[in-house]
Amino acid sequence: QELRPKSLDIKQEELGDMVEKEMASTSEAIEDAVRRIEEMMSQARNESSGVKLEVNERILNSCTDLMKAIRLLVMTSTNLQKEIVESGRGAATTQEFYAKNSRWTEGLISASKAVGWGATQLVESADRVVLHMGKYEELIVCSHEIAASTAQLVAASKVKAEKGSRNLAQLQECSRNVNEMAANVVASTKSGQEQIEEKDTMDFSGMSLIKLKKEEMETQVKVLELEKRLEGERVRLGELRKQHYALAGTYDAVEDGEAKPAPTPRRGILKKPPLAQKP
User: Fold this and answer.
1) Assigned domain for 170 exists
2) Does 9 fall in a domain?
């Protein structure tokens, strides 16, 4: 009993209601995610500027595009499910169809939950990144997770769909679009991270005169250390080359002392052989 999946505790007649509730809940989660991203965009414009504002806007715009793609995916998936039920239930009710195909229904519910959860996690990670409290890697992981849950939802829907279904073809196109938008989030996150790290390294605007002088002296020390190390490596390179030349010269001398076969004479231009003389 402990090993049984928790979803099996639900009565089969409730499965149909759960599918509709989960799809509605997923749609609501995505709508809420879009609203939160818009709020974050407004907050970022008020609280940041320059490079940080540019990076935040680029990341949030890519997240918005991803959410729109997911929203279209969920809508198309809902339409496909209705088509599957209508074509497969016959004289049975919708509830009876879901109950009869309980394994498929449970897979559909699980996939829908995964998509909604991924969208929520992405927004929370984006919020922490914009507030400089989170890690850029979290956004990348969430994007990969959304792509995986999208594939799960498409696979669950495809099992019962007709091969020539227009809704199925549209769902697969939506899935490709979600993957592309998720890749855009990853790309914008990585480029933004590099841009911020580079700016933080060279941003001296907030330093006092004493702090600047201290940083200048520390940098001079590093430059001298690197120059000394570079000079040492140059000396090492010179010694390596001397040793190489010495060994190469000895090797050539040994070869010169050995008996070598006479070089093969070069052949001239081929000529017609003379005619044989009569005896």
Assistant:
1) yes
2) no
Residue type, 59: I
Alpha-carbon gap, residue 230 to 226, rounded angstroms = 6
Q: Which domain holds residue 88?
A: 14-195
| pLDDT at residue 264 is higher than 70 | no
User: What CATH number did the domain enclosing 153 receive?
Assistant: 1.20.1410.10
Backbone angles phi and psi of 87, in degrees to 5: -85, -20
Whole-model pTM: value is 0.63
- Both tokens assigned to 48: 């940041």
Rounded to whole angstroms, the Cα distance separating 171 from 173 reads 5
Q: Which residue has the higher pLDDT, 248 or 272?
A: 248
Q: What's the pLDDT at 241? A: 87
> 15-47 and 102-130 are packed helices; what angle lies between their axes, rounded to 10 degrees?
10
Question: What is the spatial distance between Cα 108 and Cα 110, in angstroms, rounded to a whole number?
Answer: 5
Number of compact structural domains in the chain: 1
Distance, CA of 203 to CA of 196 (rounded, Å): 10
Instruction: Compute CA distances 62 → 42, 77, 141, 185, whole Å.
Output: 15, 23, 15, 5
Q: What is the 3-state secondary structure (H, E, C) of the chain?
A: CCCCCHHHHCCHHHHHHHHHHHHHHHHHHHHHHHHHHHHHHHHHHHHCCHHHHHHHHHHHHHHHHHHHHHHHHHHHHHHHHHHHHHHHCCCCCHHHHHHHCHHHHHHHHHHHHHHHHHHHHHHHHHHHHHCCCCCHHHHHHHHHHHHHHHHHHHHHHHCCCCCCCHHHHHHHHHHHHHHHHHHHHHHHHHHHHHHHHHHHHHCCCCCCHHHHHHHHHHHHHHHHHHHHHHHHHHHHHHHHHHHHHHHHHHHHHHHHHCCCCCCCCCCCCCCCCCCCCCC
> Would 174 be classed as within a structural domain?
yes
Q: Is residue 264 part of a domain?
A: no
Higher pLDDT, 189 or 5: 189
